[in-house]
Every structure is written in structure tokens, then in C-alpha cells.
Design a protein that fits this description.
The protein has helices spanning about 50-70, 75-90, 135-145, 155-170, 195-205; strands at about 5-10, 10-20, 20-25, 25-30, 35-40, 40-50, 100-110, 110-120, 125, 130-135, 175-185, 185-195, 210-215. By secondary structure, it is an alpha+beta fold. The chain has one domain (about 5-215): Glutamine Phosphoribosylpyrophosphate, subunit 1, domain 1. Helix 3 packs antiparallel against helix 4 (about 155-170). The chain is globular and about 50 Å long. About 35% of the residues are buried. Belongs to the peptidase T1B family. This is Proteasome subunit beta. Its main location: cytoplasm.
Length: about 220
């Protein structure tokens, strides 16, 4: 019942995730953060079993902090992806299998923006756009139609907004709010969340968007 989305642009990566926390058919909370900061230039979005997401995310974040303390610098985006997928696949061979799927996005000074898709079996592949969850079935056709490799952050924001609007119209589950994070050479920026209030404000205010800096 959850959805996480990602788009890679010319010099940035945009990650979006709904904030709903649910158990079976019951809605529990609407302020559940599913996107986590790995480094100053890398974030991951998680989806899956609530307890598994919490424990696995905490394990990854603590090890990323330990790596920086030990070595004096952060792990690269590809290094973080390799560490995540290696541990996720290793748990398949023991009694601590995690039901977690991820999107990892970041900006590297050498390779530029990177977006990686990781499934619950530890398989990983770099992508231009994509996501996990039930909502991706409605969003993939929108990505295929409107995505361009040279789009700017505003165009990517608008594509994500089209996806959220489609979910509002088609999806049986009401995903009330989506958090969006922009990762570029300037670092991590939290963009205006997409929800019913922001969509109404867009209609009244026009095409301009406000960016909220979280650094």
C-alpha cells in the first residue's frame, strides 16, 4: 500500500515517498518518514514491512556513520549501494531475512547524479526513473511519457506531481502526503511536499514552487 519514486535528471536526483504508516487495512499515521539521509549527498527510500524497514535502515545509517568516523570521509554513492545490497542479500541466507526494497539516490563529484533500484533480494541496477510499491503500476506510464534525460528539477517535480494526482484518481488507498528530496552538488534540499493542500495552492499561486532548504 506504499509508494516510493525516484527520478534522475541532468545534475540531480529527486526522491519522493508517501508518509503513510499502515497495518493490514488500518491506517495508523500520516507522518512516517521513509527517506533517510545516508551522507550529505546521498539518501535512501525504503519500503516493505514496517519493522524490517526500521531495523534495516537503522543498521545502514549507523554503519555509514561508523565508516565516516573510521576513515574521515563518507562512502560514495556506489559504495553505499554495494554495502546495502551485500547486507540485504546476505540476510537471505540466515534467519533474519528483511522484507525491504529501496531506492538509493545521490550525487557524486566524479560520476554525477546516480539513482539505484534495489529489490528485497539484494539485486541492484542503476535506473533513470522508477520506484517500488503498488503505486508504481500507475506511475510507470507517466514516467515513460514525460521523462527526458535533460529535464531540470522543476520538470521532475511536475512529473512526480502528475504521478501523485494519478494515484489520487486511480488508487484505492488514499496516500495523503508525499515528501520530496532533491540531491545535487549543493547537497540535500527538501522540496515542497505534494498533498491536497499544496495542489490547491498551486492552482491559486500558479507555476512557481518554493524550495525548503534542510541543510
Amino acid at each position: 500500500m506504499e509508494t516510493i519514486l525516484g527520478v534522475k535528471g541532468a545534475d540531480f536526483v529527486l526522491l519522493a515517498s508517501d508518509t503513510m504508516k499502515a497495518k493490514s487495512v488500518m491506517w495508523l499515521d500520516d507522518e512516517k518518514t521513509k527517506t533517510h539521509r545516508i551522507t550529505d549527498y546521498c539518501m535512501m527510500s525504503t519500503i516493505g514491512d514496517g519493522g524490517d524497514c526500521l531495523q534495516f535502515s537503522d543498521f545502514i545509517l549507523r554503519n555509514m556513520d561508523l565508516y565516516k568516523v573510521t576513515n574521515g570521509y563518507d562512502l560514495t554513492v556506489r559504495g553505499a549501494v554495494h554495502f546495502i545490497r551485500s547486507n540485504l542479500s546476505a540476510y537471505l541466507r540466515c534467519n533474519m531475512k528483511y522484507q525491504v526494497a529501496l531506492l538509493v539516490g545521490g550525487f557524486d563529484s566524479t560520476t554525477g547524479p546516480e539513482l539505484h533500484y534495489i529489490d528485497q533480494f539484494g539485486n541492484s541496477v542503476p535506473i533513470r526513473y522508477g520506484g517500488h510499491g503498488a503505486g508504481i503500476n500507475f506511475c510507470t506510464p507517466i514516467f515513460e511519457e514525460f521523462y527526458t534525460s535533460h529535464m531540470d528539477s522543476q520538470a521532475a517535480y511536475d512529473v512526480i506531481k502528475k504521478c501523485v494526482i494519478e494515484l489520487y484518481k486511480r488508487f484505492v488507498i488514499n496516500l495523503r502526503n508525499f515528501d520530496l528530496f532533491l540531491i545535487s552538488k549543493e547537497g540535500i534540499t527538501k522540496m515542497t511536499p505534494i498533498n491536497q493542500e499544496s495542489l490547491r495552492a498551486d492552482i491559486l499561486a500558479g507555476p512557481k514552487r518554493r524550495l525548503l532548504n534542510t541543510k
